[in-house]
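Support case: user asked for a sample of complex input and structure output to validate their parser. Sending the pair below.
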Amino acid sequence: MKTSRILSFTFLLTVLFAAGCRAREAGPEDWSERRRAMVDQLRRYGIEDRKVLNAMAKVRRHLFIPESHRGKFSAYGDHPSRIGYGQTISQPFIVAYMTEKMKIAKGDKVLEIGTGSGYQAAVLAELGAKVYSIEIVPALADHARKVLKNEGYDVNVLTGDGYKGWPEKAPFDVVIVTCAPEDVPPVLVEQLAEGGRMILPAGRSYQRLLILRKKRGKVIMVKDLPVRFVPMVHGDERKR
Ligand code: SAH
């Protein structure tokens, strides 16, 4: 008698739990609602560029997070999310902030270092940039290539070491680095076009965003926000 009561109670709990999970599962409308809420929050945080806000309202961020790491609603929260291999997709505010600072114009040739999930690359492509992106973890590069293609974004993803840049495609109007080197990688500055701009987080235990501009061959650098990004590793560091 006692056992059967426990069993039926357990059954009831299971049914309630399953029903609860079902009710919370996100459908397409939930995702777009979450995306709208994310954009409203970006606006409150001070992002003003309408083109950037519109692009982020459009790109389906949740699809860039591998299914195994996709929380029910967390894809649109203002925090980084895990994408596997110890890496993260940057929080929406940072993506918006860095993109806004670079004043992307249609047709700009942009180099991104650290493709990760492919989300930042998609936002840049949505703004009309011609995007080249380098990722050092082959499985992430494959994942990003697949999602970008499925979502209709024509982005060139290279599996390789971002410290080398992409000499065959240089010079670039914009370079966006989404992992943190200790210092500014000189090769990336070399691959910047005249009048080009670059944004990167730099430092190890303490990082800051740096914004560089190349004017008549000279480089002007401005320090910006303190940030926290995953480190930009060297090709040989990964094998250790
Ligand atoms: N922009 C990404 C987030 C990047 S996370 C997005 O929108 O999802 C940082 C990425 O940089 C990680 O995927 C990491 O593997 C990659 N990375 C680290 N060192 C690198 C290097 N030397 N060259 C290229 N990619 C690198």
